[in-house]
Amino acid sequence: MRNGSLYQHTYPPVRLQQAGGYNVATLRQDYAMNLNQQFEQIRQSPTVAMNDRIVAARAAGKKVIPLQVGDPDFATPAPIVAAARMALEGGLTHYGPSRGLPELRAAAALKLGRDNGLNYDPHSEILVTHGGIHAYYLALQSILNPGDEVLISDPTWATHANMALMLRGVVRRVPAPPENGFIPPLAAWERALTNKTRAIVLNYPSNPTGAYPSRAYLQKLQDFAAAHHLWVISDEVYENLYYEEKPASAGAFPGAKERTLLVNSLSKTYAMTGWRVGFLAAPAGVMANALKAGQNSITCVAPFVQKAAAFALSDPQIQQAAADMRAAYARRRALVLNLARENVSRLATAPRGAFYFFLDFRALNLSSLEICERLLEEAGVGLVPGSAFGAQGEGFVRMTIAASDAEVESGFRAILRWAEQQR
After folding, report:
1. What is the mean pLDDT of residues 251-258?
2. Residue 16 confidence (pLDDT)
3. What pLDDT, in 10s, does the model give residues 129-182?
């Protein structure tokens, strides 16, 4: 048959419509009609897209100050690396349990008790995941049916909405206006509610704004979820990056544990973004579904990585190293705010947490994308358009302080000069 008509027939090629600004490869007509149409609603990660442009510009010889990616500029603490090396040399290079190594699940439970005042059973209520994004995927996969609605604040990390769409959920955006500190008014959640609402997604401290609400607000939001039988998925990967009072976990309220799915990761706190390890903490009934989804998506997280993660979560010296990194981010935050004051600029408002500034360019009446493109070309600074995080982010630009002090200072000075030239 290889020489027969099946392999000799030619089909007219078709160029698919652009998806999120990127051309899908040319396919034969019959296969083009068989693609997953759900992905027409989903754009490539805007952060990744902008980073690709900046990498290409630098490769072409253009000098660019990279303030676009939320990746700590610190090396993973050396003792964590040593723990992984020891595990590798000890032979932990094969499959591990799909739930995760008991040692890491116990360390995650210890962390939740120590840092958040929460009590989770490491055997039935904690699942090790391939980073925070995988924990979020498993959380959604465990509770969503096609057509279920998910309430997500705007602005927020684009993957929160994209993942729900990939799983054939319906996303309802809840405005978190800058005038309200990028926190949705409680009444806005109520207005977004329908009889198809299944879950609320939270991300505090927020990417991209650094905002997080008071304990009283979270208590009222949990009361709202309980009254309407909603799940609460709380992405808390930035929980240890705060500059005011410590943010509360969404699960730290009476009765909240039974309806709350906590997503966490070691990426931001311990400068372990490339290690790809996190965990999901949820009721045992949810975990049964999450375990099935995990077994059939990744099988397990690399055991030597898990050994290092268990060490990171439990070692007191590593907790101090994490605190030192937070202090460095606080220093850079103060640096940006001082420069803004010196230049009588209203671009920068103090973020309460995370390691981003959401710079306010609304006075220019330009789109966020145009601002980023011009700052890249005219000022040599890499940033992410606020519109990538939702409609409420239009007119804003995200700038990371997860870069060296020198890069943050020179980059923000270049931004200030460019903004002054636009007057």
Report:
1. 97
2. 43
3. 999 999 999 999 999 999 999 999 999 999 999 999 999 999 999 999 999 999
Specify the CATH superfamily of domain 46-75+318-421: Aspartate Aminotransferase, domain 1 (3.90.1150.10)
CB 165 within 8 A of CB 38: yes
Q: What is the fold of 78-315?
A: Aspartate Aminotransferase; domain 2 (3.40.640)
Map residue 53 onto helix, strand or coil. helix
**Angle at the Cα of 407 from the Cα atoms of 64 and 63, rounded to 5 degrees:** 15
Distance between CA atoms of residues 291 and 138, nearest Å: 8
Whole-angstrom Cα distance, residue 407 to residue 403?
6
What's the CA angle centered on 349, arms 345 and 355, to 5 degrees?
125
In the structure, what pLDDT confidence band is assigned to residue 32 with cuts at 50, 70 and 90? low
- Residue 13 near residue 26, CB atoms below 8 Å: yes
Quick one: average pLDDT of 92-106? Answer: 98
Pairing of strands 384-385, 126-129: unpaired
Q: Which residue in 163, 151, 232 sits closest to 191, CA to CA? A: 151
Burial (CB < 10 A; 0-12, 13-18, 19+), residue 373, is middle
| pTM of the shown model | 0.91
Supply the pLDDT for residue 28.
61
Q: How far apart are CA 363 and CA 361, in angstroms?
A: 5
Tell me the average pLDDT of the chain: 93
Query: What gap in Å lies between CA 20 and CA 372, rounded to an integer?
Result: 17
